TrEMBL record:
<feature type="domain" description="GST C-terminal">
    <location>
        <begin position="88"/>
        <end position="215"/>
    </location>
</feature>
<dbReference type="InterPro" id="IPR010987">
    <property type="entry name" value="Glutathione-S-Trfase_C-like"/>
</dbReference>
<dbReference type="GO" id="GO:0004364">
    <property type="term" value="F:glutathione transferase activity"/>
</dbReference>
<protein>
    <recommendedName>
        <fullName>glutathione transferase</fullName>
        <ecNumber>2.5.1.18</ecNumber>
    </recommendedName>
</protein>
<dbReference type="Pfam" id="PF02798">
    <property type="entry name" value="GST_N"/>
</dbReference>
<feature type="domain" description="GST N-terminal">
    <location>
        <begin position="1"/>
        <end position="81"/>
    </location>
</feature>
<keyword id="KW-0963">Cytoplasm</keyword>
<dbReference type="GO" id="GO:0009407">
    <property type="term" value="P:toxin catabolic process"/>
</dbReference>
<comment type="similarity">
    <text>Belongs to the GST superfamily. Phi family.</text>
</comment>
<dbReference type="InterPro" id="IPR036282">
    <property type="entry name" value="Glutathione-S-Trfase_C_sf"/>
</dbReference>
<dbReference type="GO" id="GO:0005829">
    <property type="term" value="C:cytosol"/>
</dbReference>
<keyword id="KW-0216">Detoxification</keyword>
<dbReference type="GO" id="GO:0043295">
    <property type="term" value="F:glutathione binding"/>
</dbReference>
<dbReference type="GO" id="GO:0006749">
    <property type="term" value="P:glutathione metabolic process"/>
</dbReference>
<dbReference type="InterPro" id="IPR004045">
    <property type="entry name" value="Glutathione_S-Trfase_N"/>
</dbReference>
<dbReference type="InterPro" id="IPR040079">
    <property type="entry name" value="Glutathione_S-Trfase"/>
</dbReference>
<dbReference type="InterPro" id="IPR036249">
    <property type="entry name" value="Thioredoxin-like_sf"/>
</dbReference>
Length: 215
C-alpha cells in the first residue's frame, strides 16, 4: 500500500516527504490548499481533527504530527535507506533531544517570521514588527547554541546524519532562503557548513524540485 501524504506544498509535510525519500518508501501526495481553507473542511477534519498539515494514510493506518510520522517511518523501515535514529540508545537519546529542540526552539520563531513576512501580505493582514524583532533575537540565541554544538560534532546528534538534522530542513529552508535572514546562518561558520551539508542532500533537493513552497 502506497503512503498518502497530505499537503506536500507546505513545510511540515515536507519534513515527512524528505524522511520517506531517505527511507526509500514509496508515497503519493494529496494537495490541500491552506489559503482556500481546505484543511478546515469536514472531510479533512475527519483525518486531522486539529485542522493542520500533514496527515498521512498508510492503508487503514492514519497518523498526524510530522515528527511522530518521521519517527514512525524511521523505525518501521529501520533496515532500509538511511539510518536516521543512531546505532546506540545514547545516540537515539541525542537524536530525540535535537528533534525536540527543533520543535520547541528552532521552528516557532521561524514560523512567526513566515506568518509575518511571507503570509501576512498574502492574507492582507498587518505584519507584527515586534513579533519579527523578537523572533530574530530568539533565532540568533538558538543558533549560537547550535554553533557551539556543531563546533564539536558534524551533525546535531553526533558524527552521523539523523532525524535531528532532517527535521530542520523544512523551516530552515524558509529561514535561509525566504525570510531574508540567511545571514543568521551564514554568520555562524559551523551552522553554515552544517546547513550546506544537509540541505544539499539529494533527498531534500528532490523535495524542493517536486513540491514547491506556496510562497
Ligand atoms: N505540529 C504540527 C504542526 C503542523 C502545522 O502547523 N502545519 C501548518 C503548515 S506549515 O506551517 O507546517 O507549513 C498548517 O497546517 N497550518 C494551517 C493552520 O495553522 O491553519 C506538525 O508538525 O505536524
Amino acid at each position: 500500500m502506497v503512503v498518502k501524504v497530505y499537503g506536500p506544498a507546505y513545510a511540515s509535510p515536507k519534513r515527512v516527504l524528505v524522511c520517506l525519500i531517505e527511507k526509500q518508501v514509496e508515497f503519493e501526495t494529496v494537495d490541500v490548499d491552506l489559503f482556500k481553507g481546505e484543511h478546515k473542511e469536514p472531510e479533512f477534519l475527519k483525518l486531522q481533527p486539529f485542522g493542520v498539515l500533514p496527515v498521512i494514510q498508510d492503508g487503514d493506518y492514519t497518523l498526524y504530527e510530522s515528527r511522530a510520522i518521521i519517527r514512525y517511518y524511521a523505525e518501521k523501515y529501520r533496515d532500509q535507506g538511511t539510518e536516521l535514529l543512531g546505532k546506540t540508545i545514547e545516540e537515539r537519546g541525542l537524536v530525540e533531544q535535537w528533534v525536540e529542540v527543533e520543535a520547541y526552539n528552532f521552528q516557532p520563531p521561524i514560523y512567526k517570521l513566515v506568518e509575518n513576512i511571507l503570509f501576512a501580505p498574502i492574507l492582507g493582514v498587518p505584519s507584527d514588527a515586534k513579533a519579527v524583532q523578537e523572533s530574530d533575537e530568539k533565532i540568533a540565541k538558538v543558533l549560537d547554541i547550535y554553533e557551539e554544538r556543531l563546533s564539536k560534532t558534524k551533525y546535531l546528534a553526533g558524527d552521523f546524519f539523523s532525524l535531528a538534522d532532517l527535521s530542520h530542513l523544512a523551516f530552515g529552508h524558509y529561514l535561509v532562503n525566504q525570510t531574508g535572514r540567511g545571514n543568521l546562518v551564514r554568520e555562524r561558520k559551523h551552522v553554515s557548513a552544517w546547513w550546506d551539508d544537509i540541505s544539499n542532500r539529494p533527498s531534500w533537493k528532490k523535495v524542493l524540485d517536486q513540491y514547491k513552497y506556496p510562497v
